[in-house]
Amino acid sequence: MMEFTAQQIAAFVGGKIEGNPEATVRTFSKIEEGHEGSISFLSNPKYTHYLYETSSSVVLVNDDVELEHPVSATLIRVPSAYESVAKLLQLYESMKPKKTGIDTMAVISESAKVGDNCYIGAFAFIGEHVEIGEGCQIYPHAYIGDGVTIGKNCIVYPHATIYHGCKLGNNVTLHAGSVVGADGFGFAPNAEGYDKIPQIGIVTIEDDVEIGANTCIDRSTMGSTYIRRGVKLDNLVQIAHNTDIGSNTVMSAQVGVAGSTKVGQWCMFGGQVGVAGHITIGDKVMLGAQSGVNGSLKSNQTLIGTPPQPPTSFFRQAVLSRNLSAMQAQLRQLQKEINEIKQNNQ
Predict the structure, then answer these.
(1) Which helix (H) or strand (E) holds 113?
(2) Which residues pair with 75 in a beta bridge?
(3) pTM
(4) What is the C-alpha to C-alpha distance for residues 340 and 338, in angstroms, rounded to an integer?
(5) Cis peptide before 21 (omega within 30 of 0)
(6) CB 331 within 8 A of CB 339
């Protein structure tokens, strides 16, 4: 296991050391569970009290943190502790040895093309005319359908499924159980039930995208469903057919986006946000958890609720709603008094 000194870490993240520059770390830990030889970080003020209690050898803190008591850990001050620990975790992940080689129990079509330095695990299935770029990791029980193209350095975890014809760019990660390219939800009602509308399009996923476990992205009726560069989707997200998710947009768990909707760049959707179909959402739209979007939204907004509204309006209404019973009782009492006054004046 590799060791790093506080001095080496500070040089990597561009931080300033307070304490022992030779303090060594071998692993990461949460600040409340810190132990000797680990590095932690503090970015949320709610956890500040742990800074004085932690046994971590090194702690990353923001530049503006003011100490109220002495600390035993070596501190590294940086502009953003959260961003710095992300860089360190990326470095740590990149240093892990990668699997290589093709397991003898993998099923690979003779017409498929697999790039150099790839790993393909046992019981993975790779169909006809598939193209896989160099450095990819295809884990056991992954399914890659006919005609799929996958770029370089992609990771397809166990039980992930890529239906026929779909396209993945470089550095794409599909977590376990995710499904790319299942049929869009297209049915035409008739007198006896529903006629299925064939979904003959594909899904196109651009570079640097990460798809969470059990997330589903449906193929288009015609053309393509698009997941643009840098998008990050959490677990259990549903993206319907013919949608276009803009670059660097992120969505938390259980978000659902209905068909033919266009989402802009750099949007952030909280958990369980629901988005109606055939609408357009602008760039840099931030939606709070459980928001319900039934119409198009302009760019550069922070909204919450159903229909979405500015947070101040939403929370003001939430406070008022808790008092509705008392307000109703007061209204009834006022109405009663008004009626009595009317009767006395007759």
Answers:
(1) strand 113-114
(2) 18, 59
(3) 0.85
(4) 5
(5) no
(6) no
H/E stretch holding 195:
strand 193-196
In three-state secondary structure terms, 343 is: helix
Tokens 């589903």, residue? Answer: 216
What would the pLDDT profile of 189-238 be if each residue is shown by its tens digit? 999 999 999 999 999 999 999 999 999 999 999 999 999 999 999 999 99
Phi and psi for 277 in degrees, rounded to 5?
Answer: -85, 160
Q: What angle do CA 260, 261, 263 make, to 5 degrees?
A: 145
How far, in Å, CA of 335 to CA of 312, rounded?
31
Tokens matching residue 118: 């790839």
Query: Which is the catalytic residue, given 49, 69, 129, 241?
Result: 241
d(CA 277, CA 274): 10
Active site residue 241: yes
Tell me the pLDDT tens digit for each residue of 248-269. Answer: 999 999 999 999 999 999 999 9
Q: Which are the contacts of 291, defined by CB distance < 8 A and separation ≥ 6?
A: 269, 270, 273, 274, 303, 304, 305, 306, 308
